[in-house]
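Much of what follows relies on a compact textual record of a protein's fold. A record is reproduced here so that you can trace the correspondence yourselves:
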Amino acid sequence: MAIAEKLSAEPPKERYDRIVMDEKIENREQHLKHLQGLVKRTVVLDEQADQLFARFQAAPVGRRKKFLDQLKAVERKIEAVFPQFFFKPKIIDDIIAVARNVHGKFDITLRRS
């Protein structure tokens, strides 16, 4: 989200051609507007994931599966949005590195539960 917000800032805080696969985009301005909508949608989904994770952690062990299933559903929705950003592979690799770190922290938390 931070990268997309940097692209959409006025003035932009990141170079479009460094981040986005230009060959996939017909109109830069339309894509920048689309990015703003994608960011809003992803933020809402991320907030849902945060709330579900908090509920998961607070729930008794026997009721956690329900929240875990809901969390996985939101995760799939977030994953479906990312290809629409059309970020270059190098940028995706950087995002994946951060996501792996976060995933590792989730794993540690889940193992403690």
